[in-house]
Amino acid sequence: MSLQIEFEQGRRALIVRLKGELDHHTAEVVKARMEEAIAKEHTRHLILSLKDLSFMDSSGLGVILGRYKQITSKGGKMVVCDVAPAVYRLFELSGMFKIVSIQDNERNAMSSLEVAL
């Protein structure tokens, strides 16, 4: 299965929705497209919705960690939301939740950033 990426620019946050599999086959494309969108939109905050992400490996963790560093270096915040169970487990095992904030859904993610919908 391939990966689909959807971007939605909110008032102060870029929402990125990933659908499919984020692995070593798709990681470079996701990284490049997210970097480009963050730069193009002058994004300060990032919400990453993983509701439809069916699989992720360590390459995907690297992409997410890299975007976290990119956003925080600009003084922004990154929130991950709607994490599917299989991906949630990978986040737990890797310790990613100690670094990245997690919320149940996009609305809560927006609220946690204090950004109006």
From TrEMBL:
Transmembrane segments: none
The keyword Phosphoprotein is assigned to this record: yes
Ranges of residues in domain STAS: 3-117
A Pfam family matched in the record: STAS
InterPro entries attached to this UniProt entry: Anti-sigma_ant, Anti-sigma_F_ant, STAS_dom, STAS_dom_sf
Superkingdom to which the source organism belongs: Bacteria
UniProt xrefs under SUPFAM superfamilies: SpoIIaa-like (SSF52091)
Keyword list, A-Z: Phosphoprotein, Sporulation
Reported function: In the phosphorylated form it could act as an anti-anti-sigma factor that counteracts SpoIIAB and thus releases sigma f from inhibition.
Family membership noted in the UniProt record: Belongs to the anti-sigma-factor antagonist family.
NCBIfam families membership: ant_ant_sig (TIGR00377), spore_II_AA (TIGR02886)
Protein name: Anti-sigma F factor antagonist
Naturally occurring in which organism (per UniProt): Paenibacillus alginolyticus
Biological classification of the source: Bacteria, Bacillati, Bacillota, Bacilli, Bacillales
